[in-house]
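Example 3.2
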Amino acid sequence: MAGAEARTRVVVVMNPRSGGGSPARFDLTNRVEGMGAQVWSTSVDDDAASLARLAVQEGAEVLGVAGGDGTISAVAAVAADTDRPLLVVPAGTRNHFARDLGLDIRNPVSSLSALTDGVPTRVDLGLVGPRVFINNVSFGPYADALLDPGYREDKVRALASVTPDYLTGRQCVEADVDTPRGTVHLPQVVLISNNPYHIATPRYLGRRFTLTSGLLGAIVLKRPTDTPPDLLRHLRSELLRQQPPGTAGDAASAWRAASITLRGRGRQLDAGIDGEAVTLPLSVTCEIWPGGLQVLLPRDRPGIPPEPVPGLPRAPRGP
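Structure, written as C-alpha cells:
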C-alpha cells in the first residue's frame, strides 16, 4: 500500500462497537494504518455516513468500511453516490452482505489484502425512494421490533413482544402488494431484498448466491383465515415447496422483479432498512440499481458457492 499511497488516499470508516467490539479483537485499526490507510471511527457525534461524506470531500479516492451491515450500508450509499470503490471489512455480528460478497466473515483481517491488489467488481444495490439498501427492506414484525428502544440490547425480547399479534392475524402490514398472481391485501410480512434470497433448500435459506442479477427478491407472507396458529411452520413449508423465479401460494408469494410497490392504506409505514428503523411515505417503490456499487474484493477469498438445486446433491466447493 505504501507505493499506492501517493496515488490513492484510502479512508476506512470503522464502527468500534460493531460485533461486540470486533474491530478491537482483530486489532483492525493498527492493521489498516499499517497498510497506509486512515481510520476514522464513528462516535455519538460522527455517524458513518457523515464521516464517509467528509472523507470524500477531503480527497479520499477509496472508501473502506469496517463494521456490521448497518454501518456498511451507510458508507456504501456514499460510495455509490460519489462513484468511489468500497472496501468491505466484515466486523459485525452476522455480516450478511460481506458473506454474500464471498468474503471470509470469520477473519475480517483477510479483507484488507484488497488494499494492495483488490479486484474491482460491480454489484447491485437496492433503492427505496432515495435511500440505498445492501440487504433488504422489511415491513411487519421485524420493522416493529426495530422501533423498540431496547432492541439492540435484547433482540429476542423485542421480536417476541411484537410477533404474536402478526402470527395470529391481529396485526398486519397496512399496505397492498402486487404479486405475479394478484394483489395481496394487508399481509403479515413483506421482505424485499437486493437480489433474491435462496428459499428452495433449508440449509441455505436466506442466502444470496448472486448480487448481480439485476433483480430484487420479494417474499410476502399472509395468514389465511383458515391457517392454524403455527403460522411460521405453515408459511415456511409454503415457501420451501415453491420454485424460483416467481411463484405464489395462498399463504406465501416469492418472486423477482426490477421494481416492487407497496400501495398505501395510510400515509406512511414503518420499515427496517438494513436493520435500521425508518418511516416511509406511502405509496413506496423499491427498485434495483444494477451495478450501482463498485467493491474491492481480495483475490484470495472463500467466494460464493454454487446455488444448490433441490433434489440434487450439493456440488463440492472448489479450492
